Every structure is written in C-alpha cells, then in structure tokens.
C-alpha cells in the first residue's frame, strides 16, 4: 500500500493517478474527504482517523454489485466479533458508526466493463479528546478509546487481509450468509430514508443478493437494492 500523511481525498488520489489494479492508499489526514450524499468526511482531529481506499480496474459491471458490501463485511471483520453492519455498509460498534464507506465507479457501457472502481473507507480509529462534533456526536463512535501503538497499521492490515480473503474465496451465498449474520437492522423498526423523506418500516431480512427486505406500516413490502436506513437507538 501507499502511505500518505495528508491528501485531499484518498478516493480522488486513486481516481486521478495511474495505479495498478489492487493498489491501496492509506492517509492520516484528508483535507477534502468525501462522504455519501455529497457530505464531507475530513473534519476529524489530526491523527484520530484513518482513510483508506482500494482501486480496481476492468471488472464486469455484473461482478461489481456486491463489492461495496464485501468491503463493509471485511471492515466489520477487521474490527472483531462485536462489529455490526447497518445496511448497506456502515460499520458500527455498540450501535455507533465507526466506519463509513464510499464507492465510486466509472463505467464503459459499450464494453460492459467498469473502467475503475474505488472503495474508500473512513475509520474513526481513536476517540477525539474533545469528543465528536455536535452534529454527529449521538451517532458516531470510535474503534479505540485512545491511541494504540501501531493501531492504524494493524487495522489496515486486518482490513486488507479480510478483504482479499473474502474477494478470492467462497461463493456469493456464503458471502450473503456472513453479511446477514453481521446485520443490525433485521427484526427491528427502521426509517427508510430517501430524498422524499423518511418512511417507517420493519426490516424483515437480507436476501442472498444482500437486498434489504422491509415491510412498511401499510403492509406493503419492498426489496431495497440501495439506499439508506436509520435505526431507532
Ligand atoms: C459515509 O458517508 O458514510 C462514507 C464516508 C467515506 C469516507 C472515506 S474516507 C476514505 C475515502 N476517501 C474519501 O474521500 N472518502 C472515503
């Protein structure tokens, strides 16, 4: 992997350079980090977070569907048995989000190939001394309470090992079973979030394609392939 002290965004760094398939970049600071839905992901106090991205080239579009979820599962596994996934791929410890994942891909529809896909993970490695900013203090958590010797390198190595294991072994249904076991939402009331607002639903299950099956309050059901939910804490 490439280690950088500071970068605008580890995802952009890989997207803009000419790097080999499988290159990973890890940074201690981001100055223009990106979260999902256009949010920023870089305001962590210096040294508290770890930013990691992995690049893939030329994959069939049909093969890339589960990759972000595989990344979520590998992230959860790298944190140990207690880590859970909030569908689709936020990683939580004790119901607090400790890692977020942003996938960015560019496609060539003619060849049916993905030109490049970048999986970026933000790890809240250590609890900031001053706590998390007020806007996220009720939902954000840290992996470790205090800095650990070599803590971030160990996290990065654990993640990459779990990721390559999951990427190169097992069938999609083995993967779905492991992904389902880590999921926090199943059997709970959730809010399904969309640009139109939030809709209360009951999360029934995660299917073999890692879609979330929900039942809304009017009795209708849906199979969600992408999107975002929030949990009642
Ligand atoms: C989320 O909003 O939950 C996703 C956050 C993803 C942040 C990571 S940090 C490493 C990579 N580089 C970025 O600019 N964003 C992702």
Task: Describe, in plain words, how this protein is organized in 3D.
With 233 residues, the protein is an alpha+beta fold. The protein is built from four helices and twelve strands, in the order E-H-E-E-H-E-E-E-E-H-H-E-E-E-E-E. The strands form two sheets. Strands 1-2-3-7-6-5-4 form a seven-stranded mixed β-sheet, sandwiched between helices. It has a five-stranded antiparallel β-sheet with strand order 11-10-9-8-12. A hairpin with a 3-residue loop joins strand 4 (84-86) and strand 5 (90-93). It is globular. The site of biotin has 19 residues, from helix 1, strand 3, strand 6 and strand 7. Biotin (BTN) is lined by residues 9-11, 30, 33-36, 39, 41, 51, 53, 90, 100-102, 120-122.
SSE layout and pairings?
Elements: E1 2-7, H1 10-16, E2 24-30, E3 50-60, H2 67-78, E4 84-86, E5 90-93, E6 96-108, E7 113-123, H3 151-168, H4 172-181, E8 189-194, E9 197-206, E10 212-216, E11 221-224, E12 228-231
Parallel strand pairs: 1-2
Antiparallel strand pairs: 2-3, 3-7, 4-5, 5-6, 6-7, 8-9, 8-12, 9-10, 10-11
């Amino acid at each position: 992997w490439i280690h950088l002290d500071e970068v605008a965004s580890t995802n952009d760094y890989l997207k803009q350079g000419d790097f080999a398939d499988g290159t990973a970049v890890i940074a201690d600071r981001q100055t223009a980090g990106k979260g999902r839905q256009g949010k920023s992901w870089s305001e962590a106090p210096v040294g508290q977070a770890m930013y990691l991205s992995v690049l893939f080239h030329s994959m069939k579009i049909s093969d890339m569907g589960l990759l972000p979820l595989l990344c979520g599962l590998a992230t959860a596994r790298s944190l140990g048995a207690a880590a859970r996934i909030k569908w689709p791929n936020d990683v939580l410890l004790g119901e607090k989000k400790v890692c977020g994942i942003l996938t960015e891909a560019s496609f060539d529809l003619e060849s049916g190939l993905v030109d490049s896909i970048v999986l970026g993970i933000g790890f809240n490695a250590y609890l900031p001394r001053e706590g998390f900013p007020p806007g996220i203090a009720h939902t954000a958590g840290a992996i470790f309470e205090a800095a650990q010797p070599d803590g971030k390198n160990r996290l990065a190595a654990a993640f990459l090992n779990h990721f390559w294991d999951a990427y190169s072994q097992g069938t999609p249904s083995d993967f779905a079973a492991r992904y389902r076991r880590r999921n926090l939402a199943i059997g709970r009331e959730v809010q399904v979030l969309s640009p139109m607002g939030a809709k209360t639903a009951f999360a029934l299950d995660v299917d073999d394609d890692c879609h979330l099956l929900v039942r809304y309050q009017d009795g209708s059901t849906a199979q969600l392939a992408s999107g975002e939910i929030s949990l009642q804490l």
